[in-house]
Design a protein that fits this description.
The protein is mostly helical. The chain contains 7 helices and no strands.
Length: 190
């Protein structure tokens, strides 16, 4: 089903060049991770490979999806309404809040502000934009489809690796290795 006029986020994605979109998103992500940690802990760090390489892979996949959207202008009609996009956005935000609740329940504390921002803001934005992947990938070329699949697989593998090695709990990862960095506000959870 091909739409001739786009509303909401999909309309905006057609107005912004995919390269500008990816650059701005990566810059914002870098500011949240590195500047936020520097302000909160006195040292800019990121032990999560998924947060750096994996999120970049997802952003590139979203960029390719935007390119497909630019070329084909194909979005199923139900997703081209502002109301449906609001429902998707609310669902993605809810997933981010649930992630933060899980973190709080596991650690028995709120956690770092930067991690909360990542869980409640960055993750829902990535999820919301990743809906674009599902909508437009069937309209892409085999090369585009395979590349998007590979990039998503990279993100999933890196997330699994980070979870398995404890890199998602970044301050605790430092402590477990005896690293004594100038992290001024780290309180051990164990």
């Amino acid at each position: 089903m091909e739409a001739t006029h786009f509303y909401g986020v999909y309309g905006r994605l057609l107005e912004v060049s995919p390269g500008d979109f990816a650059f701005l998103f990566l810059a914002a992500l870098g500011l949240i991770i590195l500047v936020g940690r520097f302000i909160e802990d006195g040292f800019a760090y990121c032990t999560s490979i998924c947060a750096l390489v994996g999120d970049a892979a997802i952003v590139i996949a979203i960029w390719i999806s935007c390119k497909i959207l630019h070329e084909t202008r194909a979005v199923p009609g139900i997703f081209n309404t502002v109301q449906s996009q609001w429902l998707i956005a609310i669902g993605c935000f809810f997933i981010g809040v649930v992630m933060q609740i899980i973190v709080v329940n596991q650690k028995k504390k709120f956690g770092k502000i930067v991690d909360c921002i990542h869980n409640v803001i960055v993750v829902p934005i990535i999820l919301f934009l990743a809906v674009t992947l599902a909508l437009v990938v069937p309209h892409g070329s085999p090369i585009q489809t395979n590349l998007i699949s590979a990039l998503v697989a990279i993100w999933v593998i890196l997330l699994w690796y980070d979870a398995r090695t404890g890199r998602l709990d970044q301050p605790e990862w430092f402590w477990a290795r005896g690293t004594n960095l100038p992290l001024r506000k780290i309180v051990r959870t164990r």
